[in-house]
Structures are given as structure tokens and as C-alpha cells.
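My hope is that you will study the protein record below before we discuss the fold together.
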Amino acid sequence: MSPVLVAALVLLGLLIGLNLLLTVAVIRKLRRHDELLRDFEGPSPLPRITAGAVVPEFATEAVDGPLTAADLGNAPTLIAFAAPGCGGCEAARPQLIKLLAERQARGEQGWVVIADDQGDGDTLAGEFSAHARVIIEHPGHGPIHEALGVSVYPNYVLVGADGRVAKVGADLRDVAVPVPARS
């Protein structure tokens, strides 16, 4: 064999060995990354409160005055959670405004909780205030956020006139059906 061919084979063998070592290292990293992701407990896409639960007591300030859990007992209420700059919230906004107007016409309540810690919620508040009570809270830490366990946007909670949660969902279609009035 010629010395050039031997050198080429040795170089090829070294490259294959290096490739094998790098592949093993990448596989080990991916396995470790997979373990970390399995252990990750990020925010739930749905509120912690579930259908059938009574809404816990809370007191907060809406744009138009005080608001408490007792105010939910007046009529079925759709509570929408949104945030400025949230893509899903922006996409659902026209349908949400229409749904809030329809519910208002049926004598039902609508609340829109705007998660805002940057002072950008006033524009959204103006868009919703004709058809709903608007509350601006710190994301995840306001009284309604904590009572219902909401930390991801958009989210919707439908509460019956009896103060019990009827439905929860991250999609407006999940909660768009009417709730029977209290008899």
C-alpha cells in the first residue's frame, strides 16, 4: 500500500472515532435535557379551579368599582383572562367582544381580567368596558388570578348564577355555551 493511502485511512479512522465520541456526547446531553423537561413544572395552560367548584372569596377593584366573589351570584358570568401583547388574546378579542355583547343582551355578566404589570391594559379596558366589567391585575398575583388559579393567557372561566364553576377553557369555544340561570 502506498503511504498516501495509509495516511488517508488513518485520518478517516480518526475522523470516524471523533464523530462517534461527539455523537455519544450529544446523546448523553439529550437524555439529560429530556430528564430536566420531565421534571419541569411550568404553569398549567388551564386554571387550577375545576368545573363544579365554588369560586373562593376574593375582593378586588374593577375599573368601575369594587368587585367580590359575591357579585358572581347575580347571574351567569363569563370571566375572560387576557394580557396585552398575547397573540391568542388578540386573535380571540373580536369573538370575545361579540360573545360578551350577546351575554349582556341575555342579562348575563361578563368580566374581563387584564393581566398587566406594564401599564398597557388601559387600551384593552376601553375595548371591553361597554360589555363587561374590567379588572386590571398583576399577572398571576391579583385577587381573581389567585382565586381561580390562572397564570396563562388567554383563559376563560364560566361561572353559573349559583357561584359554581360551570366550565373552564383556554379556548373561547370551550365556554361559549350558555349556562342555565338559577331557578
Notes: The longest strand covers residues 109-115. The chain has two domains: 1-41, 59-175. The helical segments are 3-39, 87-105, 121-128, 143-148, 172-175.
